[in-house]
Backbone:
């Protein structure tokens, strides 16, 4: 069985969380008792991944944010990581870092991981996502997958799925149209979604994704969209999915999402205390 490597996507300017992000990367902001980025890192570590690449970027002034992540995470100090996560770590985790020069989209950031990933399969996760589900079995199953992709979905009630944009109700997330055990298509923040399943920021790919990423065209935002990347696999009938059952949160939507995340984490910790 091949090893699966991990990627945490922590670039961007964090404009939706201004003014908090004037002086630091949004993924280093506190969410209850941990830095935001530690939640997705914990997801990877719990899944048995020991090689993790952190993609970060520059701030609006052009200064690199990489040093802040290195100061927090270091390289491979198991005891330090255990202290940050609040639990004992069984295996040493090696952190690697790469700078995304401009905020060119999630798919662009994924394309930048090619040298690190090599021929391995990999699990990419957005640096502002909390996912409580145990995904270790899915990661093991994907270790020997060939030329395909796998994403994680979350059923969203209307009050959490939609936002109002210029007087019209629109989904906050990419939405999947399901067809049995595959996905028929992915739409990016549609006004009339074809299902109630949001695409979360957890993605698994084989190394052929790098060739696919090179064929993408920028969206109207000027970015390479991960929805377009995933929709390519959907149209080929090669996009599998898992539905998350436990807590999933996108912390980077706005200030309310960070507050909601902090309250959910506190509730979760309180439920596990003796």
Residues:
């Amino acid at each position: 069985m091949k090893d699966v490597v991990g990627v945490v996507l922590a670039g961007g300017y964090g404009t939706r969380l201004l003014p908090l992000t004037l002086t630091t990367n949004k993924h280093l902001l506190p969410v209850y008792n941990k830095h935001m980025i530690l939640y997705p890192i914990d997801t990877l570590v719990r899944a048995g991944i020991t090689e993790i690449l952190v993609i970060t970027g520059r701030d609006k002034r052009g200064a690199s944010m990489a040093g802040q992540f290195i100061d927090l995470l270091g390289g491979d100090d198991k005891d330090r990581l255990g202290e940050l996560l609040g639990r004992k770590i069984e295996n040493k985790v090696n952190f690697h870092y790469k700078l995304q020069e401009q905020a060119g989209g999630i798919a662009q950031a994924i394309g930048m991981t090619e040298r690190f990933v090599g021929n391995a399969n990999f699990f990419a996760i957005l640096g502002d996502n909390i996912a409580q589900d145990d995904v270790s079995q899915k990661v093991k199953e994907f270790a020997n997958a060939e030329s395909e992709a796998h994403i994680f979905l979350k059923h969203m009630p209307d009050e959490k799925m939609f936002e109002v944009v210029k007087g019209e109700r629109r989904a906050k997330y990419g939405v999947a149209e399901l067809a049995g055990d595959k996905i028929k298509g992915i739409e990016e923040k549609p006004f009339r979604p074809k299902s109630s399943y949001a695409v979360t920021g957890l993605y698994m790919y084989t190394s052929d994704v790098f060739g696919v990423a090179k064929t993408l065209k920028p969206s109207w935002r000027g970015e390479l969209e991960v929805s377009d990347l995933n929709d390519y696999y959907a149209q080929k009938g090669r996009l599998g999915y898992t539905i998350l059952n436990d807590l999933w949160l996108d912390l980077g939507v706005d200030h309310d999402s960070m507050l909601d995340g902090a309250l959910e984490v506190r509730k979760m910790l309180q439920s596990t205390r003796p």
